């Protein structure tokens, strides 16, 4: 199906969505069903949830801690013809009280350990550093929000795969599908995509690797990444946080 381009307002002075977000949304679409109740955790400007909602009719909710970024997600949702009814919660996920359980939960959470040297930009730190969303606590809380047969779809730093997979298992999740993403065929993986369930007891399906580039030239995208960009069809409109009133 040919998709309409998706315009995303985001901050010039904050964290912006990147290729990881598009790859996760593309990965997630194969596990969605029409009219699923979907929750996007740490939604940022709403890019992942909105791409999923564009794919098929969904009942979409998003949770975003930063108030101004949440306002942008609301604007981005209202500017579509498929997610005007999306509910965006300006909350810490651990303060979020859902009205019922979700069929699908999607998250591209903060990867970086709280001990790293932080940016002077607080908005970027919320999106990048685990302070507000510790992995162990997050995975356990997600289990409380997901239906027993529901799907959890996440991505994480491949270098932290051991901690990521341990946290999922410790929270009671069982992997069904996983895929590693590599920048080049001779480089180490940089991203891990997973789909997990609470009640799954079968083997893990390790999908073929996804390579993003043919050479160190950042414009030399593989056919696989080109297909993801073609599917996503997003374009960014930069605004300054001072221009957003809440």
From TrEMBL:
Residues 18-116 form the Methyltransferase small domain. The keyword Electron transport does not apply. The keyword Lyase does not apply. Pfam families: MTS. InterPro entries: DNA_methylase_N6_adenine_CS, SAM-dependent_MTases_sf, Small_mtfrase_dom, tRNA_Adenine-N(6)_MTase. Keywords: Methyltransferase, S-adenosyl-L-methionine, Transferase. It comes from the Bacteria. It comes from Helicobacter equorum. This is SAM-dependent methyltransferase. One of its GO terms (biological process) is methylation. GO terms for molecular function: N-methyltransferase activity; nucleic acid binding; S-adenosylmethionine-dependent methyltransferase activity. Gene3D superfamilies: Vaccinia Virus protein VP39.
């Amino acid at each position: 199906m040919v998709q309409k381009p998706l315009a995303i307002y985001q901050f010039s002075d904050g964290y912006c969505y990147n290729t990881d977000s598009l790859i996760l949304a593309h990965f997630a679409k194969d596990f969605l069903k029409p009219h699923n109740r979907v929750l996007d955790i740490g939604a940022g400007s709403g890019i992942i949830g909105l791409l999923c909602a564009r794919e098929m009719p969904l009942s979409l909710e998003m949770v975003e801690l930063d108030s101004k970024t949440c306002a942008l997600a609301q604007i981005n949702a209202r500017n579509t013809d498929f997610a005007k009814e999306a509910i965006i919660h300006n909350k810490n996920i651990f303060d979020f009280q859902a009205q019922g359980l979700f069929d699908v939960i999607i998250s591209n959470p903060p990867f970086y350990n709280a001990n790293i040297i932080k940016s002077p930009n607080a908005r970027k730190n919320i999106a990048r550093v685990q302070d507000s969303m510790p992995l162990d606590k997050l995975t356990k809380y997600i289990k409380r929000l997901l239906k027993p047969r529901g799907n959890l779809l996440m991505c994480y730093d491949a270098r932290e795969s051991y901690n990521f997979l341990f946290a999922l298992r410790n929270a009671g999740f069982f992997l069904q599908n996983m895929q590693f993403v590599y920048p080049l065929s001779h480089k180490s993986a940089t991203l891990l995509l997973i789909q997990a369930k609470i009640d799954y007891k079968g083997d893990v399906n390790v999908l073929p690797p996804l390579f993003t580039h043919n050479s160190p030239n950042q414009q030399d995208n593989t056919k696989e990444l080109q297909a993801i960009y073609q599917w996503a069809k997003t374009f960014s409109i930069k605004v300054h946080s001072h221009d957003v009133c809440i």
